[in-house]
UniProtKB/TrEMBL annotation:
Protein name: Tryptophan--tRNA ligase
Transmembrane parts of this sequence: none
Signal peptide (residue range): none
UniProtKB keywords: Aminoacyl-tRNA synthetase, ATP-binding, Ligase, Nucleotide-binding, Protein biosynthesis
Family listed: Belongs to the class-I aminoacyl-tRNA synthetase family.
Biological processes, Gene Ontology terms: tryptophanyl-tRNA aminoacylation
Gene3D superfamilies: HUPs, Tyrosyl-Transfer RNA Synthetase
Keyword DNA damage: no
Enzyme Commission number(s) of this protein: 6.1.1.2
Amino acid sequence: MISMINTLTSTHQYMRILTWLQATSDQIHIGNYFWAVKPMLDLADKFKDAEIFMFLAVMHSFNSVQDPIRLRRNGINIIKLYAACGVDLERFLIYNPAEIPGHAQLNWILTCITNMWFMERMHTYKDALDKGKAKEINVWVFCYPILMAADILLYDTDLVPVGKDQKQHVEYARDIAMKFNNAFGETFKIPEPYIKEEVGLIMGIDGRKMSKSYNNFIWLLDDEKTILKRVKQIPTSALTIEEPKNPDECNVYNICKLFLTPEENETLRKRYLAWGLSYKDAKDYLYEKLLAFVLPIQKKYAEISDQEIIDLVNKNTQKVNEMAKKKIEDIYKKVGFSL
């Protein structure tokens, strides 16, 4: 993977990066930002000349969100939030694959050449078996990776940024592409996974991993009153103001450090380790840093209209659809669908 990236960047060859936006929620919390949004912005900055395709995964999200009004709302809001966080809408080609027939067409072809034993290697399926829940999962569990393979292969993708837990999706796409190429001739570019650097655990206000499931998150769109309430809910130890404190054992610090410069972080750590810092002071400082982070995002978000996003996605989808059509024409000829 590294050699491929170095070759592309050193010779200034064309590179296409593909990523996606989930539409399972209409909000992004602090953890989502540091796990997903910031790494994508950093990657775009690292590969300044690359073209970035970003699709709205409404078909994929339909498994868990089957309310049409909510699904549509989620899609629009997530794009607005990514834009408010710094995604360049001129550079990132954001489109809706649900309105591009080529995704479903290629999905069917890839499904037909993929063996069931191959799909049974999936981590999700193995976990269900281990937990005795194999009968509770639906066909989507097996179809999802093949749809992802179609999403990736349809556009001759070079690089797919994923976390370690999603690497298997790219591996499936690679294996399926090689199987197709061997059977029908060179057709698909073999994509490379780009494993995002581990951000580490982002703590929620209760000390567990920040998650909607635990209701321990802070949304980027929370108002000041709600954020203050959430900060006040963070549990602290019984150490007094006169006693030194270990910052790494304090959840107020563990959240606050996400928003600090190296110099600010060092100063705060010294205050913890010395005497004189109360937990009220620490929470006040965290609240100040949270507002400094979310308020500019909220301002930008408020400036973006739903219609602006709809028009942008529709325009991009038409552009991408033309690319998909050409690829499908080539594939149809090779598999014998075109008479």
